[in-house]
Every structure is written in C-alpha cells, then in structure tokens.
Amino acid sequence: xxxxxxxxxxxxxxxxxxxxxxxxxxxxxxxxxxxxxxxxxxxxxxxxxxxxxxxxxxxxxxxxxxxxxxxxxxxx
Length: 76
Known about the structure:
There is one protein chain. Helices cover about 50% and strands about 20% of the residues. By secondary structure, it is of the alpha+beta class. The chain is elongated and about 60 Å long.
C-alpha cells in the first residue's frame, strides 16, 4: 500500500498505516484506490456554501420532478 500527501508517495506496510494517516497522508492500495483519507482534511467555507446551495437546488428540482411524475402516472 502507499501513503500519499501532495507530491510525496511512500510505500508502506500495515504497521505504518496509522502513523501516516495521522500525519495527513491518504492511504491507497497498490491499484491507487483510496483505503482511508488522511487526518486534518478540510473544505473551504466558499466551497462548502457552493455545494450546500447546489444541494438545496437539486433537492427542490427532485421534489418538483417527482410531483410531475406522479401526475403523469395518474393521467396515463
């Protein structure tokens, strides 16, 4: 498995996994799939607000489409 942070990549074994994860390294398997994310990851407030607004918009759109779908099924 590998520990990755920025442009640093280390080949590690199971005994080192917790130490590297605590230092903020993402732990991946040999194929590059993330096993665990490193500690201390954060998202900027601006990105959070953008995603929150997008989620609310999509929820409203989903509700509207479900209602339209229900009405169409009734008339068919």
